[in-house]
């Protein structure tokens, strides 16, 4: 490599590294722009390999630093990361990047194989921004083709449909708003999915959970589960459960904000419906491809197949994991408190909701009576008890200070004293 090329690559690598990006380029030329051969990009742990990358740089104001870059690339491979759990091959990519130092703004517009358009804007050192996604000319068949080898569920691998669907998603966030704004719409004429007798119904979902041994031994119909349990679980897990159609705009917005801030998918953002789909049909991998399939299946379950909220809640309350081989509210009540779920007091119900996101960790910590468990559990009770009272799910006269100071579990666990703060 000649000295000039070496110098330019060094400057480019240093510039990218200061922005959290490691880049390796085998060779480059100035044919029709800056053509990079065999480019290896590592951005915040997400590694992308590109066989050819063509950049056309347009400088509008050099000294004020208004720069625009047009780019086209081919033969893209996303290595394992939070986008995918194994090599993921993308079609050709076209887009542009603009950067303006004076306004501290960066914008990225990318089109993936004429089917997916992505627009991302940052302003004010990323304190405010907008993410816009549009898919067109996309069907279930086309989606499966794009994500070939990354489809997890037997359901998605079985069904087929050539109905074209347009999906619009707009996400805005800013330091002046407590919650990011997220809106999405779906457009299609008549959605036809084959085979028609293959549906995300209550029976299909419970059968899939049974095959995975992920269903309560003491299965309870929804009307057999006390109202206090139903409402408390909704309040702690998915407050807008009865308002959304599978995906919560608020939870999704907060998840996207967290992913942008932390540059990783660490926050789940799953609704009760999405958790049901994940446990019945998918797996626990926290990757973009799995989350995408989870979202599609959830939307199909509630909007196309019409599985009702009551059925979803019933299955969910009977499939929640609470300890190794312990699933469902009734089995959890018997396991931890040696009583039926109908006999639980208000604090014991809140304790069960604390277990939901961390069943194995809770089980092990309870055996050891760790100080962290006592502290965190007490904090959870103090956080949600006033909320339950305000919503009149729990009445003040049904809660005593003794119930909060210590939790009387079954004989195999004993008493856990919480009054340590």
TrEMBL record:
Protein name: Transglycosylase
Organism: Prevotella heparinolytica
Keywords: Transferase
Metabolic or biological pathway: Cell wall biogenesis; peptidoglycan biosynthesis
Glycosyl transferase family domain mapped to chain residues: 214-377
Superkingdom assignment: Bacteria
GO MF annotation, one: peptidoglycan glycosyltransferase activity
Pfam assignment, any one: Transgly
